[in-house]
Amino acid sequence: xxxxxxxxxxxxxxxxxxxxxxxxxxxxxxxxxxxxxxxxxxxxxxxxxxxxxxxxxxxxxxxxxxxxxxxxxxxxxxxxxxxxxxxxxxxxxxxxxxxxxxxxxxxxxxxxxxxxxxxxxxxxxxxxxxxxxxxxxxxxxxxxxxxxxxxxxxxxxxxxxxxxxxxxxxxxxxxxxxxxxxxxxxxxxxxxxxxxxxxxxxxxxxxxxxxxxxxxxxxxxxxxxxxxxxxxxxxxxxxxxxxxxxxxxxxxxxxxxxxxxxxxxxxxxxxxxxxxxxxxxxxxxxxxxxxxxxxxxxxxxxxxxxxxxxxxxxxxxxxxxxxxxxxxxxxxxxxxxxxxxxxxxxxxxxxxxxxxxxxxxxxxxxxxxxxxxxxxxxxxxxxxxxxxxxxxxxxxxxxxxxxxxxxxxxxxxxxxxxxxxxxxxxxxxxxxxxxxxxxxxxxxxxxxxxxxxxxxxxxxxxxxxxxxxxxxxxxxxxxxxxxxxxxxxxxxxxxxxxxxxxxxxxxxxxxxxxxxxxxxxxxxxxxxxxxxxxxxxxxxxxxxxxxxxxxxxxxxxxxxxxxxxxxxxxxxxxxxxxxxxxxxxxxxxxxxxxxxxxxxxxxxxxxxxxxxxxxxxxxxxxxxxxxxxxxxxxxxxxxxxxxxxxxxxxxxxxxxxxxxxxxxxxxxxxx
Length: 671
Description:
With 671 residues, this protein is an alpha+beta fold. The chain is 49% helix and 17% strand. A hairpin with a 2-residue loop joins β2 (50-52) and β3 (55-64).
């Protein structure tokens, strides 16, 4: 509790014997008859009279200064003549309105100031991280404003649930006579057909759109923002914390049938400051007053003020650098959050690239499937003609027909899989799934890197942001052990207190402080550590956690090494697969050409098997090309070398090009 709060609490427990501030009585034996508070300019205070509401020629006396701007202070309207007054005729309604609106406006402007400070903190953390790190910014338009006095509905604790009984539901079946192969095929073709109003979406546009709308990206930004806000909260605790507490009270005391009524007012303006080595200091200015409402014998009105200074400084437990451990950890957490967000952006770019290239591969697979259907239909037609001419058996025609039907079924599955993948892609980047878009085919042309396993591991151990955080977490838990060890010490505190009051011999002393009545005190408080069981357990717990974090760090290094080696082998594997599939495609095409050159020597099975082999080889080659480009991206990411610009584009490192080939021509639709 602050010094001001302590003093107000102490005064409020008394019977207004040392209360204070102002009296608000128009004449003797009357109750409160004052129009209230007025906002005036403190620099214009002067002797004079003023109209206060409906009561003319009333004086103003300063009672306390609250947390308003320097030239705006609160004054109380009193009918008794005092030494300070102001000539003015402000409107009571305007004054009250200003008093109501001022805190609200102050809250809004204060929140905007904090938003700017949060953005500055994020910018500083990103600059400290280096490497062109990106940071989010708070946009107050994205967040719910809230209400000061919300009016919740009566059933707010009972959210509605829509779960009708089965009898209330309806299932409409298609008549069996209408469901044949032709109608199913026609309906599926309509579903698979692209929307003519589809918008072409490029890879760069997809990434840029996801940075603004993707749920996981926005959540990552907000996680970063929350860490920055927690740091500001902790830093604020280490700044001078002002407070102003006003307490108004009323009491009545029966004295043989006649009740003595009194009102009191206490105001405490204080400030508290934590010390960097432990403990805190505080200062408070208190003004108190009491007013007897029934002064039929004599006036017992009192008014006084005091200045209180207090300090509490630990000398053993809680002394030293351990006092700032929460602040130190909050600042380090912001660095960790900056690293985590930057690493997330790199992983997110890699994931979006994989999803987009998968869509391109599926488009090529659909083109390959359509080509196989056309060729299978041609084989079927030729085989049927041979059966009609008596040159082959009927089962050969049936075999060709089966292959055509299988090809049609595979094609329909490919189309549906593409639509499903596209819907998932739209959902991932934050787009409504009903929005019609078409993917523009894109192929990366990254050069294959020269991979040296030892150098790749060294790069990963040096540049991986997650490994740096794991390493620094070991330091964090080492400090936690020191903090837990310090908590086992005895409590040995130095307490200082100074109280400068106004003249106690005067019932209404104003601000006439009397150094002769100054009261200073100092004390050393020692508490023997007789019960430190919890502290001992916390120390052992922190030691165990430290060992766990050390093992997790070494495990993370091992996992990173495995990932780097896997990504390096992935490049070689993709290269090998691409070479193999290129030869496989060439062999399948030669096989098909040989069959076409001697059609009478090939059976329907030979033709259908050749078509299946060609389709599989083409699909495998397309996947190998995609896997090679993704393996290169995965390698530079696993070694900590990937850099992504604010607009979501890849920043090529020296020696690496980021060439892309785009356009419908990438999809091979040749017969």
